[in-house]
Description:
The structure is a single chain. By secondary structure, the protein is mostly beta strands. It is built from one helix and ten strands, in the order E-E-E-E-E-E-E-E-E-E-H. It has one helix at 164-170; strands spanning 10-16, 29-37, 47-49, 60-64, 76-81, 89-98, 114-119, 122-127, 137-145, 151-160. A five-stranded antiparallel beta sheet has the order 4-5-1-7-8, with no helix packed on it. Strands 3-2-6-9-10 form a five-stranded antiparallel beta sheet.
Amino acid sequence: xxxxxxxxxxxxxxxxxxxxxxxxxxxxxxxxxxxxxxxxxxxxxxxxxxxxxxxxxxxxxxxxxxxxxxxxxxxxxxxxxxxxxxxxxxxxxxxxxxxxxxxxxxxxxxxxxxxxxxxxxxxxxxxxxxxxxxxxxxxxxxxxxxxxxxxxxxxxxxxxxxxxxxxxxxxxxxxx
Length: 176
């Protein structure tokens, strides 16, 4: 990177999937973002943003939530303003958890799953969960504060056999 690089600033995370077949329980996938402190980057999240919540400082907002996957294109959307996060935060991990109402479902059981992370018009990451077909939840990307360069990102695809509540406790442990 050049000396003028500011790293990653504001990203949009978008999630898509196809609805369940007629008569089957709905497929409900949820975006999850965990914010970790500089002094404990793999411990418990200091902030956890998911359906029905947002970060206390307004830097992470889930502004579109779907319980069925019905719609055109991406059904859930989250904005993460890394450049506004306080210096005491050093890591943000983004993942997806499948709600398990109506029976156990993994990513391989749900058609057309995909996630896209963008900064402006640039795709930073596009992922389809094909590498974690038996997982009930998965991490996708991590953003790490990188000193003078700001925030950097890297793929962090790791599947878990964890429902949404349990996923929140293991989210930060994901490391490639």
